[in-house]
Amino acid sequence: MEEAKSHSLEEDFEGQATHTGPKGVINDWRKFKLESEDSDSVPPSKKEILRQMSSPQSKDDKDAKDRLGRKMSIQEYELIHQDKEDENCLRRYRRQCMQDMHQKLSFGPRYGFVYELETGEQFLETIEKEQKITTIVVHIYEDGIKGCDALNSSLTCLAAEYPMVKFCKIKASNTGAGDRFSSDVLPTLLVYKGGELISNFISVAEQFAEEFFAGDVESFLNEYGLLPEREMQALEQTNTDEDME
Question: Minimal CA–CA distance to 233: which of 224, 245, 222?
């Protein structure tokens, strides 16, 4: 069973960072280096070294295995680390790896805004028919209730930051259970996953200061582990760090 799982994962990631060990990373870098070179500006001798460094291997190709497994020669090392252009090439390589990983790991439905639910039936349908992997955050509110407007604005910001989470809002009077959601318990946040209620926060505005913003709501939800990690955060940080270098 484990062998089958391993094979499946290997197939899913085929073509992206194909070598995972230290030697494999070096070989991937060599191949990327070759593909990044301008063929018109590369001397034949340099191009040949790059070609040899990145040549693919078959399982039965002993010479190729030796070539992959050996240490880099001084000429190869100097070729890869010789100047500023190589630093830029390395940055592009790292960025491409991050983008490839992001693309492979990004799955599931995407949202990006707050859905207005008009009826109790829509509310139930959203909870029952959404994919099981999706976290659904529902804000039950009413106009004129303290904290409801601020929470709606905060959730609009968070919906853009966490497009894999489905954010919804519905007026208490439209739920069909208005007696359960009186003004005393609003604003209320309900969090669902897989059709099940996993968190229930009544009068949630009391958890914040008089004025609160998206960051406050984000921190609150993160305290309870209700938000996933921002999927682009690592990639954006990598790009920012590289731009500053």
Answer: 222
Judging by beta carbons within 10 Å of its beta carbon (0-12, 13-18, 19+), is residue 95 exposed, middle or buried?
middle
Cβ burial, residue 9 (10 Å; 0-12/13-18/19+): exposed
Same domain, 99 and 183: no
Q: Which two tokens stand for residue 173?
A: 């009077």
Count Cβ atoms below 10 Å from residue 205 Cβ, excluding itself: 20
pLDDT tens-digit readout, 64-115: 555 545 555 655 556 555 555 566 767 777 777 766 665 555 566 889 999 9
To the question of pTM greater than 0.70 for the whole model, the response is no
Domain containing 40 equals 19-53+76-103
Backbone angles phi, psi at 177, to 5 degrees: -135, 45
83 shares its domain with 135: no
Are the C-beta atoms of residues 123 and 140 closer than 8 Å to each other?
A: no
CATH classification of the domain holding 123 = 3.40.30.10
The whole-angstrom separation of Cα 34 and Cα 86 is: 11
